[in-house]
Design brief:
The longest helix has 28 residues, at about 110-140. The radius of gyration is 26 Å and the shape is elongated. It folds into two domains: about 15-45 and about 110-185, no CATH class; about 50-110, no CATH class. Helices cover about 75% and strands about 0% of the residues. Strand 1 (about 45) and strand 2 form a beta hairpin. It has eight helices and two strands, in the order H-H-E-E-H-H-H-H-H-H. It has about 190 residues and is an all-alpha fold. InterPro entries: TMEM254. Keywords: Membrane, Transmembrane, Transmembrane helix.
Length: about 190
């Protein structure tokens, strides 16, 4: 039967052999926001017949209509019952998304081109997710650490994958230094390197 010291030493060794979480690069947040906006633009956008103008979604059409009515009433001298207020949702849909739509038309020629780029980005993300899962499983990462790496890699890809690779390298150096045998795929990689 193992003694208390052996049990605590084994627990400490098991704790040390886990892959640690490293924060993503600072470009993570803009990359994640741009990726989400690209998905929204590619798959939830409706255009007119010519494909050159983006149509407002149904959920903001009533806001736009009431704003037009209030502006027309103010222009004719009638005093509208409500003042024209800034609407964040309308600003996002009309100004921000229309800007990205026009930029996408300039770079990719059509909504279909924007969709092709978005599908290509998803294929790259799936490749990065495969790398992320493989690294996490081979380095004995906890379920929480694996889930966090997978979620962040899904959102921003390389901005989280590069810190994961450096965490794996640090984990392998730590395992070699302590003399523990790496498990799974890392063990096979370390045998190949020898």
């Amino acid at each position: 039967m193992p003694t208390e010291a052996q049990r605590s030493g084994g627990a400490a060794a098991a704790k040390r052999s886990r892959l640690e979480y490293r924060r993503p690069w600072i470009v993570f947040y803009p990359t994640a926001v741009l990726f989400l906006l690209l998905n929204y633009l590619a798959f939830w956008t409706k255009t007119n017949e010519t494909g050159t103008e983006r149509l407002l979604p149904d959920y903001v059409a009533s806001y736009a209509a009431s704003r037009v009515y209030m502006r027309e009433a103010a222009a004719t001298g009638k005093s509208p019952s409500e003042s024209v207020v800034f609407n964040t949702i309308l600003f996002f849909e009309e100004d921000v998304m229309n800007f990205f739509f026009q930029l996408g038309l300039r770079w990719f020629r059509s909504l279909f081109g924007i969709q092709v780029v978005c599908v290509g980005a998803w294929l790259i993300h799936l490749f990065e997710l495969g790398m992320c899962a493989r690294i996490c499983f081979s380095c004995s990462a906890t379920l929480c650490t694996t889930a966090l790496y997978v979620l962040c890699t899904t959102l921003a890809g390389f901005a989280q994958l590069v810190p994961l690779i450096s965490a794996r390298d640090a984990w392998l150096a730590k395992v070699k230094k302590t003399g523990e045998a790496p498990s799974g795929t890392s063990a096979q990689e370390s045998r190949k390197q020898k």
